[in-house]
Amino acid sequence: xxxxAAITAADVxxxxxxxxxTTEKLAWGQPTFRVAxxxxxSLGDDESAMGVKCPREDxxxxxxxxxxxxxxxxxxxxxxxxxxxxLSVLEDAGELAAILADSWRQVAPRRLRAAHPExxxxxxxxxxxxxx
Length: 132
Known about the structure:
This protein is α+β, with helices and mostly antiparallel strands. About 30% of the residues lie in helices and about 25% in strands.
């Protein structure tokens, strides 16, 4: 991906807010994106990375496979189903949208997921296993 095509914080905001019933709320001084009041994504302090929901049992494999893209913030994400994604390493807007949709599915209530089958499981992670 070329530098002029790099994914930006504005791209994250646009993609996150395009998901059904998503709202943006500032928390801890950072933009967070929520569905049904639950956070599924956030932008980091310097907007070079985003945080997303990811089952702890899946994230170690993702980080091992692509450590330049996926990481956890030691001492902060260790005990949560959460990981970070470096925006500069994302291939394109499609990959961004897929990651955000997967995170959204993990948080969205079952009725909302059922109402939006176009956001169905992409085949990765534990998509669609949120409560509801």
